């Protein structure tokens, strides 16, 4: 085994890349859950975003259009979930599972003509001056734009939830939908908007995998990233800043095990591939002691009577 | 303007009607999907739902109905018990894989010894393996309050990796010329899960599935534990006040669903599939979730829903061969079914009223 092939700067830089998909999907799901909705369909929306982004990038040659399409695809699928749970008042757990199964089927149908193709490479964006700083420049400031977009989104969501009126209303809806309704807020409309935001974020996260991280299309390529994003929200106790922390932790584990695989550790590859999932379980166990942070109306059905 | 009005009691008529309605709407939407793919929708629907039962080669496809329906029913029955109590085991696929691995491990350990006790031991190992795999989320939920949905699902990916490690490593056939996958249990009479009646498709797993249906029916309708499960799901507070032990319910529901999924996996690997290979599992664990809901979490309903879902698998394969319908289209079709089912389920609990908008 050759551990010297693992360089810290490269490791940390690829950690940022590996963390981005779950970061995007996680921050979207955080907003959804803060509005009191549990959408278990993140995996389905991610994979749909992955293929929408991939197909559009191949057809138009523009990664930007690809990411726009991915967000639209994710949001479109999320709208289905919104219609089911908010209008048809269906069980959220079952609807989320349905969304995932549906999304997996839809994506492999859409993607059958795109297997084996290579998308246009998304250019890395080196921030001038900053990227020249030794070590830090390589780790933090030499990524593609989506990495910065993800970080910016976390900051924006944090500020919006904490300081803006819209954020306050969103939290009110999530904590007590009956009270919010009595105050005159449109609970269903707010929740549907939140759900679509979550879908768009998940779609972006999926497209990040198919366009930048891998970049290629294979069936079921998100391989549980959506579920890890869901776990991330629990890990973060529904706080945006800690989503970032969690995403880096999971990104770190993923990158480390990939590097160990490449370095030829004397453990079969399959056992190393298990590690992100096992770590997720471990983290869930540690974090689930404190349930008090969960939005009070999470997963409950809202029906305005009268 | 449309308004929803909650029914004082769920409508019994619609409880029976909604699955049928959902299947019909799915057929229509599916037809539109097939038309969009450039296939004749009527022919496609007929190929999927009619030909396997009454077509020219029906004699070949009818036994397949049991082969494919058996595992689906067995897994879905287990899941439905938990779903009834609000305990969401969605990692049946993982428990299915581990059950299969444990069953196959026993067989491969005894190879080439021929003895009557090998197959029963395999059944035991499969059941135990699936149950233990499900006990992980159960114990974590009981001890630490960890979300069982996420843990059981994460364990699916762990199980898939474990399967790959076994198929390529320890369980690989030493006489397989380097190909991945274990010895074929079909060539090992003591371990082979053969058809009970030749040509019927009825193997021991199918029989177990039917027994599970009866077991679940008796449990839910005639036994105190079944009543507690239903009570926990429908009125958790009432259940707590009346002294139902939630820990016991969680352990039982997850344990039994893991056990049944493990059994299904073991019967599959020792029968229709024959060997442990990287992709011997075809997602029955996930499709069984659709089956459970389509059957309205009722044992008899699940029996019918499992057979229907098996039909879409078989019909889908025929349509793939005859019409060139992509296999993903069938997966999408099954996903749609669950969607429409959840949507029309609204009619069971709510009445839709047309009302004029009044001045506020």
From TrEMBL, chain A:
<dbReference type="Pfam" id="PF02653">
    <property type="entry name" value="BPD_transp_2"/>
</dbReference>
<protein>
    <submittedName>
        <fullName>ABC transporter permease</fullName>
    </submittedName>
</protein>
<keyword id="KW-0472">Membrane</keyword>
<dbReference type="GO" id="GO:0022857">
    <property type="term" value="F:transmembrane transporter activity"/>
</dbReference>
<feature type="transmembrane region" description="Helical">
    <location>
        <begin position="135"/>
        <end position="161"/>
    </location>
</feature>
<keyword id="KW-0812">Transmembrane</keyword>
<feature type="transmembrane region" description="Helical">
    <location>
        <begin position="271"/>
        <end position="289"/>
    </location>
</feature>
<feature type="transmembrane region" description="Helical">
    <location>
        <begin position="220"/>
        <end position="238"/>
    </location>
</feature>
<feature type="transmembrane region" description="Helical">
    <location>
        <begin position="37"/>
        <end position="58"/>
    </location>
</feature>
<feature type="transmembrane region" description="Helical">
    <location>
        <begin position="245"/>
        <end position="265"/>
    </location>
</feature>
<keyword id="KW-1003">Cell membrane</keyword>
<dbReference type="InterPro" id="IPR001851">
    <property type="entry name" value="ABC_transp_permease"/>
</dbReference>
<keyword id="KW-1133">Transmembrane helix</keyword>
<feature type="transmembrane region" description="Helical">
    <location>
        <begin position="96"/>
        <end position="115"/>
    </location>
</feature>
<feature type="transmembrane region" description="Helical">
    <location>
        <begin position="6"/>
        <end position="25"/>
    </location>
</feature>
<dbReference type="GO" id="GO:0005886">
    <property type="term" value="C:plasma membrane"/>
</dbReference>
<feature type="transmembrane region" description="Helical">
    <location>
        <begin position="64"/>
        <end position="84"/>
    </location>
</feature>
<feature type="transmembrane region" description="Helical">
    <location>
        <begin position="192"/>
        <end position="214"/>
    </location>
</feature>
UniProtKB/TrEMBL annotation, chain B:
<keyword id="KW-1133">Transmembrane helix</keyword>
<feature type="transmembrane region" description="Helical">
    <location>
        <begin position="69"/>
        <end position="87"/>
    </location>
</feature>
<feature type="transmembrane region" description="Helical">
    <location>
        <begin position="12"/>
        <end position="37"/>
    </location>
</feature>
<keyword id="KW-0812">Transmembrane</keyword>
<dbReference type="Pfam" id="PF02653">
    <property type="entry name" value="BPD_transp_2"/>
</dbReference>
<feature type="transmembrane region" description="Helical">
    <location>
        <begin position="300"/>
        <end position="316"/>
    </location>
</feature>
<feature type="transmembrane region" description="Helical">
    <location>
        <begin position="202"/>
        <end position="220"/>
    </location>
</feature>
<keyword id="KW-1003">Cell membrane</keyword>
<dbReference type="GO" id="GO:0022857">
    <property type="term" value="F:transmembrane transporter activity"/>
</dbReference>
<dbReference type="GO" id="GO:0005886">
    <property type="term" value="C:plasma membrane"/>
</dbReference>
<feature type="transmembrane region" description="Helical">
    <location>
        <begin position="328"/>
        <end position="347"/>
    </location>
</feature>
<protein>
    <submittedName>
        <fullName>ABC transporter permease</fullName>
    </submittedName>
</protein>
<feature type="transmembrane region" description="Helical">
    <location>
        <begin position="249"/>
        <end position="267"/>
    </location>
</feature>
<feature type="transmembrane region" description="Helical">
    <location>
        <begin position="149"/>
        <end position="169"/>
    </location>
</feature>
<dbReference type="InterPro" id="IPR001851">
    <property type="entry name" value="ABC_transp_permease"/>
</dbReference>
<feature type="transmembrane region" description="Helical">
    <location>
        <begin position="273"/>
        <end position="293"/>
    </location>
</feature>
<feature type="transmembrane region" description="Helical">
    <location>
        <begin position="94"/>
        <end position="111"/>
    </location>
</feature>
<keyword id="KW-0472">Membrane</keyword>
<feature type="transmembrane region" description="Helical">
    <location>
        <begin position="117"/>
        <end position="140"/>
    </location>
</feature>
